[in-house]
Design a protein that fits this description.
By secondary structure, the protein is of the alpha/beta class. About 45% of the residues lie in helices and about 15% in strands. It has helices at about 10-20, 35-40, 50-60, 70-75, 95-110, 125-140, 160-165, 180-190, 205-235, 240-245, 265-280, 285-300, 300-305, 335-345, 360-365, 400-405, 420-425, and strands at about 1-5, 25-30, 65, 80, 115-120, 145-150, 170-175, 200, 315-320, 350-355, 370, 385-390, 410-415, 430. α9 packs across α11 (about 265-280).
Length: about 425
């Protein structure tokens, strides 16, 4: 099939590349000419394991193309995926202007039956609004073109997005059109498994499933972070508590991890947007607001832990391992590390950062407000403390003898509970994890 992905960001680039690997003719379009030119030259604009190999294979044989000419690409495509951002407004509501702008462009240019797919995370009712916008544009043109709008939310985890696409837990297709449902079913058929089904439902249900899924996962994280405070007060260990909980088949072990808070492009904005949706309809948003509050509090809990060891941070050199919001991605959006860096700067501490993949994005955002290290150990030279903010594999088993020699004072605040407290104690390291 001929597919168009409008928005060559994380969702559009990964989904488009993976669909091309299934034999479809794919165009990824974006208004960012620098991004498109980089992709045409074979330069990956995001870091995602396995993506470059798929890109190279399919771009080479011409199944994967890139353009800034969105109008032309719309005319050539059978299915158009809207993959633009829906960032949070100041009140938490999803900003839909980019989605609606794409809908207008589609209405101005479609010439034959086309399926328009909301792939971006969008509030309930967006499919109806997108359909209305397209209809209005067609009316202006005095054109009669058949089309259907489908909600097909993505569930790609950054760091394992290619794997998630190829082996999805489920595929959600929200459509009131039998024709569109059948075509979308054929498109996704190569990915369907008995235990990983394609679920057909209404557009509203599909839109809600996405928000509900992310909000539930965020709730589990905030729940464990809330419990972590109690573990610290009572001398408990949140990792042991989580293990004991996780064996309960009603609960399971996934996302029961206390830490320095969640970040990224999904959980923070989706929790806020779901809370705003509830309030818009006059309903209670107590749980969602609490989830968001606990997460913001958790991000700000790292520096107070550090100050128990170093009461005065003025002039102290603080090394930070990890700027991305989680490992195996270069995404730093809403990363807890950014909150911690801001706090440290207010205390006039000297901050040195290192991340295996996110350094370029960190430099673009933080400019010269921090120092950047070429490696993990280099960041520790003369450091008064180390804050572990992302659980990259290369941070899991460092040479602690070397760490102790490099650091001025061996204080480690483990924001991801990577290390064992008893081992740190034996090594003579001043250590504090989360809820331990």
């Amino acid at each position: 099939m001929k597919l168009l992905f409008v928005g060559a960001g994380y969702v559009g680039l990964v989904s488009g590349t993976c669909f091309s690997d299934l034999g479809n003719e794919v165009i990824c379009a974006d208004i960012d000419s620098k991004k498109i030119e980089a992709l045409k030259q074979g330069q990956m604009t995001i870091y995602e394991p396995g993506l470059k190999d798929l890109y190279e294979r399919n771009a080479k044989i011409g199944r994967l193309k890139f353009t800034t000419d969105i109008a032309k690409a719309i005319k050539e495509s059978e299915i158009i995926f809207i993959c633009v951002g829906t960032p949070s407004k100041p009140n938490g509501e999803a900003d839909m202007r980019y989605v609606y702008a794409v809908a207008e462009e589609i209405g101005k240019n479609i010439e034959k039956y086309t399926i328009i797919v909301d792939k971006s995370t969008v509030p309930a009712g967006t499919a109806d609004k997108v359909s209305k916008i397209i209809a209005e544009e067609l009316k202006k043109r005095k054109a009669k073109v058949e089309y259907d709008v489908v909600s097909n939310p993505e569930f790609l985890k950054e760091g394992s997005a290619v794997k998630d696409f190829q082996n999805p837990d489920r595929v959600i297709i929200g459509s009131s059109s039998e024709k569109a449902s059948q075509i979308m079913g054929r498109l996704y058929k190569p990915l369907a498994r008995t235990e990983r089904p394609i679920i057909f439902t209404t557009e509203r249900n599909a839109e809600l499933i996405k928000y509900a899924s992310n909000a539930m996962l965020a709730t589990r994280i905030s729940f464990m972070n809330e419990l972590a405070f109690l573990c610290e007060e009572l001398g408990g260990d949140i990792k042991v508590v989580a293990k004991g909980m996780g064996f309960d088949t009603r609960i399971g072990s996934r996302f029961l991890h206390a830490g320095c808070g969640y970040g990224g492009s999904c959980f923070p904005k989706d929790v806020k947007a779901l809370a705003q949706m509830l309030e818009h309809y006059g309903l209670s948003s107590n749980i969602m607001r609490a989830v968001d509050y606990v997460n913001e509090r958790q991000k700000k809990s790292i520096v107070p832990k550090l100050k128990k060891f170093l009461p005065e941070l003025d002039g102290k050199k603080i090394a930070i391992w990890g700027v991305s919001f989680k490992p195996r991605t270069d995404d730093i959006r809403d990363s807890p590390a950014l909150t911690v860096i801001e706090q440290l700067q207010k205390e006039d501490a000297k901050v040195v950062v290192y991340d295996p993949e996110a350094m370029e994005l960190a430099k673009a955002m933080l400019k010269d407000s921090v120092e950047y290290s070429k490696g993990a150990y280099e960041a520790l030279e003369g450091a008064d403390a180390l804050l572990v903010m992302t659980e990259w594999d290369e941070f899991r088993e460092p040479d602690f003898d070397r760490v102790k020699k490099l650091m001025k004072d061996t204080v480690i605040i483990d924001g991801r509970n990577v290390y064992d407290p008893e081992e740190m104690k034996k090594l003579g390291i001043k250590y504090q994890g989360i809820g331990r």
